[in-house]
Write a structure and sequence with these properties.
The protein is mainly β and 87 residues long. It is built from one helix and six strands, in the order H-E-E-E-E-E-E. It has a domain of 60 residues: PRC-barrel domain (SH3 type barrels, Roll). The chain has a six-stranded mixed sheet with strand order 4-3-2-1-6-5, with no helix packed on it. The longest helix is centred in the first third of the chain and has 5 residues. It starts with a helix and ends in a 17-residue tail after the last strand.
Length: 87
């Protein structure tokens, strides 16, 4: 059964950061495709979402019987250029 293979998988970012373990997933009823994975975090400092992260299928880079690897979800944002106000 697919549930037994996915529940409990450790989840890492592409950069190698451990996020937690898969505790559940959501299936799209019409296609039977997994659309979201729910990950329980182990680090209370990163516990910003009450101990659970939601990973969409688009964020998954790879998944096998040993681990799931997901995209790093950070981007370097260019700071806006400040322009003087003319009055």
């Amino acid at each position: 059964m697919i549930r037994d293979k996915i529940i409990g998988l450790p989840v890492y970012t592409q950069g190698g950061i451990f996020l937690g373990y898969v505790v559940d997933f959501e299936i799209e009823p019409n296609s039977g495709e997994i659309v979201r994975y729910f990950v329980k975090t182990k680090n209370p400092v990163k516990n910003l979402f009450r101990g659970k992260l939601v990973i969409s299928k688009e964020q998954v880079i790879s998944i096998d019987d040993k681990k799931m690897v997901v995209e790093d979800n950070w981007r370097k944002i260019k700071e806006p250029e400040l322009k003087p106000m003319i009055t």
